[in-house]
Structure formats: structure tokens, C-alpha cells
Amino acid sequence: MNEHEIIDRIRQLFPQRAAKIGIGDDAAVIGEQVITTDMLLEDVDFTRAVPIECIARKSLAVNLSDLAAMGAIPAFGVMDLGLPPWALDKLDAFLTSLAASARQYDFDLVGGDLSRSEKLIVAITATGWVSKRPLLRSGARAGDRIYVSRPLGASSAGLQLLQRGWLEPPRELPYAQRELAESMIRRHMDPEPEVALGIALASIDAVTACIDVSDGLSTDLHHLCDASGGGADIERERSPVFPDLASTGPLLGIDVRQAVIDGGEEFALLFTSTLRESELSTRTGRPVYAIGRIARAQGVRLDGAPLRAGGFDHFA
Amino acid sequence: MNEHEIIDRIRQLFPQRAAKIGIGDDAAVIGEQVITTDMLLEDVDFTRAVPIECIARKSLAVNLSDLAAMGAIPAFGVMDLGLPPWALDKLDAFLTSLAASARQYDFDLVGGDLSRSEKLIVAITATGWVSKRPLLRSGARAGDRIYVSRPLGASSAGLQLLQRGWLEPPRELPYAQRELAESMIRRHMDPEPEVALGIALASIDAVTACIDVSDGLSTDLHHLCDASGGGADIERERSPVFPDLASTGPLLGIDVRQAVIDGGEEFALLFTSTLRESELSTRTGRPVYAIGRIARAQGVRLDGAPLRAGGFDHFA
Hints:
The structure is a homodimer. Chain A is of the alpha+beta class.
């Protein structure tokens, strides 16, 4: 079974009685409450070379990003922590960092479970409150504009550099490459969830659907279209690219198109609206980027050519 | 840091603003909602020799037992699943079993996160609703009777047998020993949470405090006393022992006293009340076992001698 098939099987086996929105969106909605969970694993999602402060913040950020995609206000949650000896030695830095991040987003950690383990495991469950309404993946209609909330490509490129062992880029790199490499590595290790934007979008009726870019633009756009029952046409030209990635990325050996179109863990919001870019920017008080339109025809197309879901599947 | 010190540090770092009851009880209470989480790990909490159906049910049971200790009604929750190849092959049996158990307790699984991993990881977060009131660890007063909800010792003894490699006891064992061994192994692998009893106890005002026996009677009684601000006197004679364990356990090499007094993962409820055993049995419709009294004097005593918390500490 691949990831998609497993999720389908789970949906089949577990009736979603309590849930307005159950398995299959970024988070579940039960009454006015939103709930989601994400687990980060050593040697799957990070290595022990990554600063423990970043692991702590990211383990919360991935959950808050799911709440953001629902337009929800962070509330409280719990954490399971599997600790190997190396992480136990750094536990205070981990907890201090997590606490600062929780405070920043007004999130209360109210419980958890501790265990020793061979690899570091951080599994957080976050609940939030529906703000004006839950933002779903399923509301997009033909003609709606498709938006992303920020330039893409840095996280996936940063991961490629980390996989070369570049926790710090080599000192002999030219300045511009080193600067770019550093900021992309940081973006991968320490992503910011779009909590405020999600809440703002939920308050705008003309925003029709939303998802966070965790699997990659191509894959998450497929998810949004599948849930909404339509297709999408996007333009490569219009997809915003992380600053300097287009010019300097290739010098670092980065496949820019792949990083922007298929790269996961961006934690930008991908959403649709009947409103124009300028109006949405005004109403949210920040830039947003129109990249295409929802279409009646099934499937996702990039510059007219079919675009397959190129994101990561744990079980493919 | 040992487990206790880590939890203290977490409590210090994370303000419990949203929570009526935060870190430190069996579950947190926020408004009318109860939330808890527990994670089971391969080679820490079970081995891959254990039937996957049991792992599935136990991963939910440990959470439902926390809800039971609060007197809460199971509602909904989420699951993080880290899957190694051997477990992916048995995933359908795992999910089918988990779904049956969820149905039995009226618990809805509404979301989750999947990952590949080297070892099987099952981290469930369960929420419930406060029934009449939340049962806390902190309400016991000097003179209250101390109760356990069922005979103890089987889970810890079953674990000892499992650690000998006895998933099935050897066929050459005498019948009585084999029967006992099988039922203790089953009790360890496939525990039943006391959900109905917890809800019943919450409806009885004269029940003053409650905790589940997950760390072991001696340790959990210390927890209850610490939270309530008193001490306890219990009698070995009165502690109910799993049927045939006292007579046949020693033939299997089981230290019966240790299994009953210190053995963890019993998932019985340990609670206090001003009521007599016969009255509590009548009102709950089932046997309960008085084992001693709450005392003004700090500390826990067994037959008058100080009893230390003998339970398992992951980080001791």
C-alpha cells in the first residue's frame, strides 16, 4: 500500500461520526475545535546534526501549519517524546526552545508522554479553535484564482544542501552562494507556520479553499483539486521563487524547477479565491502570489502540460 | 534528569493557562474536555513477536485508561504511526483491530500522521468529555479508604514470562502453570481499560481521588498521595492478587510480592473514598477491593513499613 491507499483504508475502517471534517483535510474539525498531529523522526525528518532548538520549533511548526491551513486559532495540545541519550543531554535546550515557540503562538502544552528510545521522536498533537469558519481543501470552484503565500523552493533546496552534510555551507563558497545556502538551510530547519495569515483568510468569505504546502506545490495542488472536484492550470512564470534561488541556485547544483514545483515542507499556504491579488494583499496586509486558476477540466497543468504529483510518499 | 525531574521542568517552562488541570494528572482538563497521549515503542514497550492486533488494542487502551482515571467519556483523537517494513506487511490487521477497539469504546479516530521508521511507533492522543466531574489525583483526605478495581500482578508477571521468550508457554509445563502463564501474558499484551468504572466513580461524590495503575501500585499510590498532600497505609494481606498467582506464580519463578506491589501496566484504577467496600460495590455494580487508608502522616507504608515507589523510571 502507498500512503494514499493507507489513508483510504483508515478512512474506510474508522467512521467519522464526531467529526464535521474527518480524515483527509489538513486537520479534523469537531464542533468548533480543530485537531491535528504530526510526528518528526530522527533520520527520517532530521538528523542529530540539526540544532536541537530547530527540531523543537519545527515539531510544533508542522502542527501549527496544519491549523493555519484550516484558518484555526492555536489553543492547546500534548507531546510524545522518545529520547535517546544524545537528546536527553540536550533536553533543556529542546524544552526551552519549544516553550518559547509555544508562547509566540499562544499554544499551551498541557500534557505528554516520555519514553527512552533509540532515535529521537517528537510527536505533537495540536488543537485549535475555528475562527470565523474552517478553511477546507474542498471549496475551490472553476475560475477561482490560485495563490501561494510566499516564495517557494528554499526548503527543498535547503534539504538537498543538508544532505550533502552542509549544516554550514563551505567557507570557500562565493559570498552570494553562501548567503543563499545559509538562508535555504535555515528555511528547511526552522520553518515558520502561516498562523496569522490562515486566520485572516478564514475571515474573507471570497477565499474558497486552502491547504498548506507540506508535500510540495504539485502534490498539494492535486490534493486541493481532488477535494474540490476540479482541476488547475498554473504558470511556471508566475510561481514565486525564493529570493536569489533562480539566479544562484543552479551554481549550487540546485534543480530550481524541482525545488519550486515539487519541493515539500514549505509550509506556505496554497489557497484559492475569487478575489484579485491586489485586493487579497490589501485585505490580508501582506503579499500573496497568484499562480493560476482552478479549471473545470480534471488534472493539474503547468503551462498547459500535465503536472504529476511529484511530492514525497513515505511508502511508495 | 530522571522522569520526575523532566516533568517538573516541563511544568515550569510551559504555563498551563488554558487548563483547569494541566501537566501532572492522568490527563489534562480544559473546560469540559479531557486530553491525554501515550506512545508505545517497539523494543521498549513491546517486541515484534507480540501479535500486531494486541499492539493495536493496547496503544488505544493505555490512552483510554488515562481517560478512565479522570472519569471521562471517550470522544475522539488522532494517531501518529511510524511503520517499519515488517509492520507495513501487517498493517491491515493492525488497523482492523484498532478500529474494532475504537468502536467498542465509542472512540472516533479523526486524523493522524504516517511515516516510515526503523521501529514500530504508535502514538495516540485521546480526548474525552468530563462526565459528572473530573476525577483527580488530589482529592484524597486522611481516613479515606484506598481501593483497587481488580486483582493485581498479572501484567508484570506476564511481562517477565514474555521476556523469557514465552509468547506461548512451553507445552511441557503442568496444566495449571500453563493456564496461569497464558492468562498473565494475555493480560500484559492486551489490557482492558476501566472506562465504565471511571465514569461510574465520577458520579459518586464520595469518591475523592483516582489514578490508573500504570507505573505500579507502590508508585501510583505515591503519586496520589503527593497530589493529595497526605500519606497512605496499605496491607499486603488485603491487596487482591490475580487468581492463582499466589499459589502457582512461585512455581513459574515469579516474585509475587514484587508483581503485585510494584508491577506496572495493570491499568486497574486506584482510588479513594469515604464509602465502605460493600457500598461502593453495590453502587458500581462490581467488586472493588479496599487495601488500606489515607493517613495524615506523609509517605506510603505497607504493613507499617515504609514502601518506596518501586515502579519503572525510563530515565533513572
